[in-house]
Structure formats: C-alpha cells, structure tokens
Amino acid sequence: MWINPKELVAGEPLCEHGGFVSLFPEGVKSTAAAEPGIFEIRAAVIDVFSAMDRDRSGFLEVDEIARLMRSLDTKTWTDKRIQMLHKAIDTDGNGKIEYSEFVEWMFAPPGSPKAGAKERPAANVPLGEKLAEHEHKFDPIVMASKLGKFLPEGKPRVCILGGRGFQDPLMQLLVQEVARLMTSELGDAVVALTGGLPGVQEDFAKALGEKPEVVHMLPVGEESGFGVGRDLAAGATMAERMEIYGQIGDFYLTFEGGPGVAKEAIMAHSRGATLLPMMWTGGASNGMFDFPPEALEQPNFCSEEEWAALKERGARDGEELVRTTAEAAVKVLRGMIQERSS
C-alpha cells in the first residue's frame, strides 16, 4: 500500500506513519517484519474500511477519511494530505472510494499507477507481494460475516443463481419478470445479491427497480459493469467468491444452471439457507449435478398450485408461463421470509 508524493515523508510507506499502522492488529502492522497470513490481512482490511465507513454506505468520502486519520494524527493529516490520499485511492475519480478501490490500493504491486509508487526501498515489502507468497487459510464463514457489514442491516439477503446464458428465451423473460415483481411486492424489505456474472444475474439486476438495493459480489479487482447497484469485493479468486456467496445469503433463487450453480446451492443449503428453484427451467434447478433434493420438495406453507407453477410447464406457454411462474415465485419467497422471521 504505497503512495509516493513528496509531501508525504519522502517516499516512506503510508502505513508506516500518520498513525495508519495502528488500525491493524499485531502481525499485520509491519510490512517488513512479521509475516501475517493473507486471511488475517484481508480481515484487517475489511475492519479498517468498516471503521472509516461511518454511514455504512459502502463508500468512503473525504470527510470520513479525514475524521479517522485526524483521530490518529492531527499534525500529519492536513487537508492537503487527506485530499492527496483520497485522490490516490479513488482511481475512477467519482469522488467516492469503493471497497474494491481500497483493496486494490492496499495490495497494489510495486510500480502500480493506482498506488502512485514508482520506487521504494527494497527492504520494505508491501502487502501485495505477500499475497503471492502465502499458502493461506481461507475461512469463507468469517469473511462472509465481515463482508456482511457492508450490506443493509437486518434485511433478508436474496441471492440469485443461474447460468451465464439462456437456453430458452422464455427463461430470460422469467428472470426479468421475477425481478420486477420482487421490486413491486418486496421493495426495500430485502437486499438482492448477485455474483456479478452475465446472463441470469445481470438480467435480474437490470430488471430491478430502484428498490431493493442490489449488490454484486466479485473477486478483488473485478467489476460487474452492470451499471446498476454496487460492487463488493469478495475473495481473491472466483473460487473464494463462490464460497463466500454460498455463506452470505438467506434465500437463493435459482434459474436453470450447471455444476457451478449446483455447487453454490449445495454450500448454501448445507448451512441452512433456503433454496427456491425455478424447476421447470431445468439444469441444476431441476435436480441435476447433485442439487439438494430437499429443495425440490413442496414447503408446508406453499399451495400445490403455487408449487406446480414452479415445477412444471404443463400446458402453459409464452406470457402465461412467465407471468404465473413469476407470481408464484415471489409469493413463495414472501412466505419463506415470513416463516423464517416468525
């Protein structure tokens, strides 16, 4: 985590002065001495960002950085230095620092323009290099808990699972209709989560209205590019992101899908999350790839007619198929949420 403006103590690492180092626990404080594992480093970064993000918006603004840094060292953190720090991290220049930008800045490799560093003493090894050196312990349960700090508090988390394309044009219409009904029926009472992938997740996110809020969880450094909602960095790789995604949701809506969808559904189901598959769309959602068979069984509070609308296409087709399936899906989801909260 390097920034090298001359005004900031002649090229020394930013974490070494201005009190910034005190934000990290022992073992993560020095970039040259102790060798912290990657898991501890990531956990510490999330805690630091959360401490700065006082309004829990998922972004850091200048005043939030100023408040915390001046509480550590009023003399070092002048207005000018705080503005320089904010500009160095805010790589897209929108005036806000997203969690992904903060992580990229923290773990920027030597010479990275995002970190603003061109040269540094060889003895000082930045955190970014340590990521490549460690066989690390990764705990998706703990990471999901920490990332939960950046999600709306107290709201059910509805995760979307599905393929990166559409085998049936009607399935694409179904995804969009479920999203629209979720907006009108549940609104701001829930938060929607995606894995930032094209296909089902992208179409679902774009079909949502202004509410509920939608958050896209991706590996560090990646962006959804959806143009709606906000991105949240989760894990260093896609495999880690999948494990975190399987741990963070309360409810998982599944549309078709292959082995990857089944894998995330299995992880979610194994810890007690509720799955709601659109069964007639096929693939994992209809029991393939070891999708949890219990999720294909009709819940007690759900009527036979509602469950049949999710299970079989029957004689329905076109607009009727899409409309009746979406209506049943959102009604069943509402019942699942009510049952869990009771």
General description of the model:
- The protein is of the alpha/beta class and 342 residues long.
- It has two domains: 9-137, EF-hand (Recoverin, domain 1, Orthogonal Bundle), CATH 1.10.238.10; 147-341, Rossmann fold (3-Layer(aba) Sandwich), CATH 3.40.50.
- 41% of the residues lie in helices and 10% in strands.
- It contains twelve helices and eight strands.
- It has a six-stranded parallel sheet, sandwiched between helices. Strands 1-2 form a two-stranded antiparallel sheet.
- Helix 8 links the parallel strand 4 and strand 5.
- Helix 7 (169-185) runs parallel beside helix 8 (200-207).
- The chain starts with 37 loop residues before the first helix and ends with a helix.
- How much helical structure, as a percent, in the residues? 40-55%
CATH fold title of the largest domain: Rossmann fold
- The H/E string reads HEHHEHHHEHEHEEHEHEHH
Oligomeric nature of the chains = single chain
Short overview:
The protein has 342 residues and is of the alpha/beta class. Helix content is 41%, strand content 10%. Helix 1 packs parallel to helix 6 and helix 6 crosses helix 9.
Present the secondary structure layout.
Blueprint: H1 38-52, E1 59-60, H2 62-72, H3 79-89, E2 97-98, H4 99-106, H5 127-133, H6 140-147, E3 157-162, H7 169-185, E4 191-194, H8 200-207, E5 213-218, E6 230-233, H9 238-248, E7 251-255, H10 259-270, E8 274-278, H11 304-311, H12 318-341
Parallel strand pairs: 3-4, 3-7, 4-5, 5-6, 7-8
Antiparallel strand pairs: 1-2
Helix pairs in contact: 1-6, 2-3, 6-9, 7-8, 7-12, 9-10, 11-12
